[in-house]
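Methods, example record. To illustrate the input and output format used throughout this study, we show the complete record for 3-oxoadipate enol-lactonase. The sequence lines were provided to the predictor; the line carrying structure tokens was produced by it.
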Amino acid sequence: MERLQRQATAFRDLLGLETLPQNAREAKAAARQLGAVVLAGVAPPTLLSELIHEEVEGAPLPRPRFVDISTGLRLRYLEWGPSGGVEVVLLLHDLGESADIWRRLGPRLGDRGYRTIALDLRGHGESGRSLDARYSADALAEDVKAFIVARDLYVSPLAVVGCGMGAAAGLALAQAAPFLLGALLAAEFALPADAAAAAAAGEDAAGGGDAAREGALEAANGCASPAAPGGAARACSGSSKELLPWWGFRVGQASAFASVEQCAAFLAHPLANLAPGLLVPLEAAAARQVAADARQVEADAAVAVGSDGASSASSCDSCSDCDSPNSPSSYVRGAAATGGQPGKAQQDGQAGSPAAPAAPPLRELFAQLQRPLRGAVASACSLVRLPAWLAEGRPADYWEEEEEYVSGGGGLQPRMDPSFHFTFDPSALLRGLSGLRCHLLLLRGGRASWADADDAAAMAAAAAGGGAASAAIAELPGAGHWLAADHPEQLLLQVVAFLEGPAVRCFDRRPLPSGAQQGAANGCSSAGASSAGARRPELLGLRPLPEYSTLEEAQKALGPRRIPTAAAVDEELRKLRLEEGRPPSAPSSDDEGEGCGGRTKRRTALARDPPEYFAFVG
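The corresponding predicted structure is encoded as:
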């Protein structure tokens, strides 16, 4: 786990954080602090206005829909394709996005006959936010599972396409309900390969005693036991907070933007897109640049005042550990604010100075982190709430309305919980790979990817060695992390090739397997699972089987219910009046009175309206 620890340390240092965020409050503070740094160096190009109009007008969104789910939240979703289609593709967005990010891919899948549904995950878009900041992968998977039940989408196996955070939620869902999904395309999400090997070693060491199991689990979690040779104990954490902190928050989630253009320029900034694999090289390149600058300052000072003055003048310039103006972390933040270009001191010393050879590598690293403007525009239109004139496709002469909107509301606010802090347990997800039953494709970008190639290969091997129908990896050359926004056409080709290739039978309604394995996986008995092979929510592990103490209680709860007639309501009211010791014809409360032809003027809708009106109920 040394690689992850170096990356996490570089992530903390490059962003200028004292500690890695451990909770929602710290994530909000870190996002706000870094957002201010990035906003200071953002200068939106004039091309962005045209790209924004092309994004909104070229791919209009369908009418949004909302549903209340059993986890207590209301989710917003978009839908394309046949409304009654049985081949359902569920799209789950990445961190800091919303269902709008699928505006170009969703209609294309719908045109191919797939019923395509894109969700706003909790804390994003117009969906509800968690009052207690529950934003783990398991919590997101529970929301998706509740949505599937609420919309009756479980009658056939589903295909899930998730990017980044959405891929983590899809993976957690596939492990919690193995027979719910027929296919899972997890884009830009991979778990540490060395942790996967440690988890496998932990399973092999199951018979080796408690010490062997504890050592394997500690290795999988990225920590050492207090008795580990060569040093003191390290803090042990099975969460992504310490091992994979770049998944915790999105830069900009706690910022306010003057315009959509500024938000797009913000999201294209290198510091808003730090890739884990480039963190250590960035820090090393910055350290080399700082050292070269220090040598140049020392040489200039020696010429000006002599060697004694040079020594005192450069006493702190060569410091690479502190957060002084010439430290690597400060240098990276300052260089990123100018797009990776060297500052004035570096420009003055480029010709024939030791600083010149060190600057190009840093610029090359920033170039890898730079996003295409069209993709940044798509992310901005997904993140912020667009002004009415823009969302409605009105002409571009409504700038005065936008200025009033911005000045009156304090700027364009992200449609995201500013305290969002995404977490997951890497070891638990790794151990669950062997329990997958669906087709699995791990997709990664070929440039500045957040998913390491070796990690993806190890995950695919673990899934294939378990019970997955198939497991493979693929790469999009030249693509970065934000695939749905930056490369929708390439992503579409991969999705179609997957669904119509290895996973072509993923939507088939096969009978659920019987036996103890299926019963244990879904929390029900094998006898119930093998009775008819029906895809009921209880058999799929979507909700527990109800339990009743008596037969009468079960019949009362499960039996058909009649819609009360007006005569039945009058009879119940008459009984109530008699119990209260009043005449049967007297009003039973202040809310009742005579009217409407001698009938009560306030009565339930079930009694007022004809029974046919409620034919859709149940």
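Annotations derived from this record:
Residues 296 and 542 are 65 Å apart (CA to CA).
The chain is about 45% helix and 10% strand.
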